[in-house]
Description:
- Helix 2 (44-66) runs antiparallel to helix 3 (74-97).
- By secondary structure, this protein is mostly helical.
- 67% of the residues lie in helices and 0% in strands.
Amino acid sequence: MTVTPKSYVKKSVPSVFSLSLKIDSLRKKIKKSVEPNPQPMVDLELVAEEIFLAQKTLFELRMKKRTSQTTKPHLFTHTKRKLAQLNTLKNSLLKITN
């Protein structure tokens, strides 16, 4: 018994129906990628409140560091990044409303 390599094995040809389904799904994906994404409605007051909480958390972390209490250094990075993202979101919302 001889074993044929996989490259020589005859592959089944997909049916026309399955090809048309694949083409339709690709067309839908292309339409979705071309259509502009609607901006999610975000309340400016909610963003301002989150900014305040992030600033408060950052202040508390700094105080813990200065008073030699146990701190987790990675929380500084996470909080600063969250604060920067929220400020960017706030600025983009202000540009949209004006």
